Amino acid sequence: MNQTATVSEQFDAVIVGAGFSGLYMLHRLRQLGLSVKVFDAAGDVGGTWYWNRYPGARCDIPTTDYAYSFDPELEKEWTWSEKYATQPEILDYLRFVADRHRLRSDIEFSTTVTSARWDEQAKRWRIATDRGKEVWCRYYIMASGCLSIPKSADIEGAGRFTGQVYFTSQWPHEGADFTGQRVAIIGTGSSGIQCIPLIARQASQLTVFQRTPNFSIPARNGPAPADRLMQLSEDRAAYRHAARWSRGGIPVEPTDVLGVTASEAVRRERFEAAWEQGELFAILGVFADQGVNPASNDIVAEMIRERIRSAVEDAATAEALCPKDHYFGTKRPCLDTGYFETYNLPHVRLVDLRTQPITSISEQGIDTADESFGFDAIVYATGFDAMTGALAAVDVAGRGGLSLAEKWAPGPSTYLGLMTAGFPNLFMITGPGSPSVLSNMTVSIEQHVDWVAGCVKDMREAGFETIEPTALAESAWGEHVRDCAAITLHPTASSWYMGANVPGKPRVFLPYIGGVNAYRQACDDVVSQGYLGFRRTGRGRDQCRDGVIRSMQPDVAMVLEVMAGLGLPPMETLSAADARALMAATTATRPPAPEVGEVTDGVMPGPEEDLPYRLYRPAAPAGPHPIVVYFHGGGWVLGDLDSDDPLCRDLCARTGAVVVSVNYRHAPEARFPAAAQDAFKAVQWVDANAVSLGGIPGQLAVAGWSAGGNIAAVACQMARDAGGPRIAGQLLICPVVDSEMTRPSYAENGDGYILTTALMRWFWDHYADPADRGDPRAAPLRGSPDDLPPACIVTAECDPLRDEGVAYARALEAAGATVRHIRARGHTHTSVTMVGVIISGAPVRAQIAQALADFFPAPIAAPVTGALSHSSIG
Ligand SMILES: Cc1cc2nc3c(=O)[nH]c(=O)nc-3n(C[C@H](O)[C@H](O)[C@H](O)COP(=O)(O)OP(=O)(O)OC[C@H]3O[C@@H](n4cnc5c(N)ncnc54)[C@H](O)[C@@H]3O)c2cc1C
């Protein structure tokens, strides 16, 4: 230990914060026999509920759920008076918990932790407070709150105002009386929306300054929901278990109704039910797709706007109160009691800062470009530096003096939102990268505290002194958090979830949106895999289990889960006819594919029989266009013009090229080399008929997915060997290029991801005799890679065929071809092509389309819009 330090006291653990998190953490660590010190800047326990004493402050998760569940006796002893309890009642509850478990004796109030430094020699943290105290600890736990650092009033002249100033998040304990006063409220987030109706009852004049209108629905407060109380009384443990394994931390039956396909009657009925229920998770779950599909989201958003318009009498005020710059749910929606109706009172006025911005605050009031307002009091309801504010407010230095603020300057980086590399034994409760503010926080808090307690217990039992995430585990978790957010509409909003409310804060989506249940599973899996992604050291031991806990794209994992649940027979156990019927049945359930200018079916001559084709012509620009001859997937056995129709439409719409999808002969009726011969013949025919097909002569590319990629690659080799036609480029999406099935990607991904080793074997058996499987027309990787057209090769991380695709890309590159290799991270063999189903495939297909467009001399890529990708609104 550093000898020069003034050692006052040593603890096993120091906890910052005595709110829901800190209190339970203290209890759990005490149970483990640890010595613990808790510091809180507040004068008592409560955290959020100590500070936020503004009129109308309440929880907006029902009290049946917004409470601890770790102590069944406590649950029996405490009865909530309302569905949504007031701040004083929640504070009383937390005081009751603190007394019941005699927690106060280890808490030092009115004390702010100012710095924390890791001492490498001592393997301990040195903690300093604003009271000059310094303590040492093995474990440093930041239970400092996600919404505990108020945003400063960054308005010109804010300090000049001579009247009363209030911040909702630091409300005076003696309260405030606005009777007869002219009051300004700046901010219309949750706190503003809660306090405005109550302040309006006292003030003689109330002026609300609104920067962004927010969605809010009536809370319908009253007694706790009877159905929930009944479930709790029947089987409390089962109810709590269901909450822990739910998406948001409340047991809610998820719907599978899609907004875009539901009838108008169903839409209305579902919306009305959620509106009447007055609960956040109900209105956020009207449709299964409202969080990811703009069209579905618009349906809910517009219905809420209808309600706002009918509640507010003045049409211009109503319109100003209607949120239109963000999708519903991408900013935290609010629950209110008479909020919108308050604007019908004659002494209440709304000032829309988008049309009338504040220029400065004066001694007497607030000046906008058009008006000067005089006030007796200004109330700031301007929100928080969310999720990272309290963590960054402490001067934290980890290994080698690494500063947390510096490490996180580009945005926070954590493993599971629990720890961050370079800061051993520093735990965060509901840190960035965990579900936290997107969930019922009491459930998330208990889960984090339990995980940390379990981790500390395991370390002590195994004799480890330090734990820290690996760089790989942390960066992969960050990628997973971003992947989860990217498939939703959330990143399109300028929200505090994105850090957008704090000037200069990096724009990253801070919480984990994959769900409380998925998150809990990931945390549990980390432990069951021997603390995967962590390095633990102590007593001469150094154990590092480096690795990645979640690498698959979240929507791909979801679809796999749904498919597994359908209990379909494995394809390889079926006859070819039955397998085709099963595939056709699946195809029929797909969502609508993107629109293109024109779709026509025709036939072209094949080597033995006519080959059906489908031609996709782009809506714009006007032709002629480059042409792409496309071959569908299906292991040479399955598939047809319908099976890959959405992908062909997508390629056509994104590139502005004509796509000619060709249906070749299938095995086992027509075995090798029938498919390859058909492919080459089709390329020759399209080349010869380019003009009549609306194409530009000489601008011809080939493309294919899976077995279609196989015959596309073969067609290129055959064209080379035959001296034509000239092919501008080959797009091979997850192609079969070899018959060898022993590459590592087969071992890694040969089971469970739709295309399995067994299925691939079935395909080969149907297609080609073992003696033919080394023929380059079956396995193009075995052919000469020389003089082949430029290639775009797409490989998927979780595809058995990945490594042969990689090998083909390398072989072509080594032979001098121009190769663009797109590695689809977290995707399977099928997922990139699942247009309209797998949202995370869209950015990959955007890259594919660009590569395809780049094969041709003139720029042809059409802008990618609307249905093809999420676009921001505003
Ligand atoms: C008005 C409001 C309403 C909310 N309603 C809900 C709801 O209905 N449902 C829900 O799930 N969530 C709600 N939340 C989120 C709420 O913050 C959490 O539910 C929960 O109370 C967080 O508990 P916590 O202990 O993690 O953090 P907090 O309650 O924020 O406690 C953190 C404590 O740490 C202390 N602290 C921070 N930094 C330091 C330091 N450096 N030194 C010393 N002390 C420090 C703070 O003083 C604070 O007391 C609400 C938040 C607000 C602001």
Could you list some keywords that capture this structure?
single chain, about 850 residues, alpha/beta, eight-stranded mixed sheet, globular, disordered N terminus, disordered C terminus
Give your account of this protein's structure.
- Strand 24, helix 20 and strand 25 form a beta-alpha-beta unit.
- It is built from 26 helices and 29 strands.
- The N terminus and C terminus are likely disordered.
- Helices cover 33% and strands 18% of the residues.
- The strands form six sheets. Strands 1, 2, 3, 4, 5, 6, 17 and 18 form an eight-stranded mixed beta sheet that branches. Strands 22-23-25-24-26-27-28-29 form an eight-stranded mixed beta sheet, with helices on both faces.
- The chain is α/β, with parallel strands linked by helices and 874 residues long.
- Flavin-adenine dinucleotide binds next to helix 1, helix 2, helix 13 and helix 15.
Uncertain residue segments: 1-5, 863-874
Output mean pLDDT. 95
Share of helical residues: 25-40%
First and last CA, distance: 56 Å
Structural class: alpha/beta
